[in-house]
Every structure is written in C-alpha cells, then in structure tokens.
C-alpha cells in the first residue's frame, strides 16, 4: 500500500483487481477544498488509458511487477519461449501477451519481460531494433503518389513503410512501438 503522495510515473497500481501503470500525475491544491491527485493510468494488459482522480492522502494498492532481461529463443508453434540468461530457466509466453512485439523480435534478441506473481504481463522491446528487409519493390523515380514511401517486409514478417531509396537486403532501424522507420544501419 502507498499513499497518493507516493505516486510517480511507472508505478503499477492494483485497482479493482486490474493492473494500471501511472503514466502521468499532478498534485492539485485548489484555493477552496481539499487537495487531490489527478492521474493518467494505462491498463497493463489491454493498453486502455483513463484519467482518474484521487483525494490526497488516501491509500492505494500497489502491485509488484518484476521486469527482467530475457533472451527470446524461438516460437514453438503455439507460444514464444524466452530464457533467463542468468538461471537458464525457460518461460513460455502466449501470443496475446507478446502482442505486436512479435513482429520485431529476432531469435536470440534481448527483451524485457514484465511479470506479476510469476504471470507474464507484457514484453517490452528496446526503443529501436535493427532488422533486415526481406522484400520490397524497387522505388520508381518520380513516384510521389504515396508520399515517397513504400511498404517493405522485414525478416520477421512485419511490414513497415520505408523511403523509396531503400532496397531488399538492407539493414534498417525501426521503432517497435509504432513500426516507424528510423534510418539505415551502416
């Protein structure tokens, strides 16, 4: 348990049996009436974002979420298998839990796995990942109907929009949070 004075960005709260991460908070002391804390919360599992106001000084239940570095090993056809590099313990995680991160994970890459009471909650990738383009059509000079971008399929199977000058076989940097092209890797 913690009071509303202990709230900070990144802390995970257990509200009505659901886990919520505090993404922003603001202590407000109006001229009239009691102080309160205005927060923006994001549901850990569904990603839903809500605004919630707490009276100052009340107790809120915090959840213990363990974030650990794991190595992605392989997809066994049903689940994704991760390994703890220190203890060599393996964990199977469902595709629903991995979510969109699956399109940006290569075998033997390092990810952060968040767990609550041993149950996997979500997989967090680094801010940028380096992947090779498996296939993209050649860019035609003067073709600006698509704003200078074209679709490219990555080696993981995900599709991202890249500039016209990018060719198959090139290595690029991608933001896994939104699938945005960040640049070429030299």
From TrEMBL:
Give UniProt keywords alphabetically.
Cytoplasm, Elongation factor, Protein biosynthesis
| InterPro entries on file | Elong-fact-P_C (IPR015365), NA-bd_OB-fold (IPR012340), Rib_uL2_dom2 (IPR014722), Transl_elong_fac_P/YeiP (IPR020599), Transl_elong_KOW-like (IPR013185), Transl_elong_P/YeiP_cen (IPR001059), Transl_elong_P/YeiP_CS (IPR013852), Transl_elongation_fac_P (IPR011768)
**Example of a GO biological process term:** peptide biosynthetic process
Cross-referenced Pfam families: EFP, EFP_N, Elong-fact-P_C
> Where does the Elongation factor P C-terminal domain lie?
129-184
The Swiss-Prot or TrEMBL record describes its family as follows:
Belongs to the elongation factor P family.
Alphabetized HAMAP family for the sequence: EF_P
Q: What is this protein called?
A: Elongation factor P
Q: Which gene encodes it?
A: efp
């Amino acid at each position: 348990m913690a009071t509303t004075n202990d709230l900070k960005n990144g802390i995970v709260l257990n509200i009505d049996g659901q886990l919520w991460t505090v993404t922003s908070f603001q202590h407000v002391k109006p001229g009239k009436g009691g102080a309160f804390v205005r927060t923006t919360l994001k549901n850990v599992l569904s990603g839903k974002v809500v605004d919630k106001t707490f009276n100052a000084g009340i107790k809120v239940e915090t959840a213990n979420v363990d974030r650990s570095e794991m190595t992605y090993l392989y997809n066994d056809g049903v689940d994704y298998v991760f390994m703890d590099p220190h203890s060599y313990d393996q964990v199977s995680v469902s595709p629903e839990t991995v979510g969109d991160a699956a399109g940006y994970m290569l075998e033997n890459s390092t990810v952060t796995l968040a767990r609550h009471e041993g149950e996997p909650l979500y997989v967090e990738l680094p801010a940028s990942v380096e992947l090779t383009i498996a296939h993209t059509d050649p860019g035609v000079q003067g073709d600006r109907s698509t704003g200078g971008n074209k679709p490219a399929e990555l080696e993981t199977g995900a599709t991202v929009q890249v500039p016209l000058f990018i060719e198959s076989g090139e290595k690029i940097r991608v933001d896994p949070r939104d699938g945005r092209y960040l640049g070429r890797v030299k």
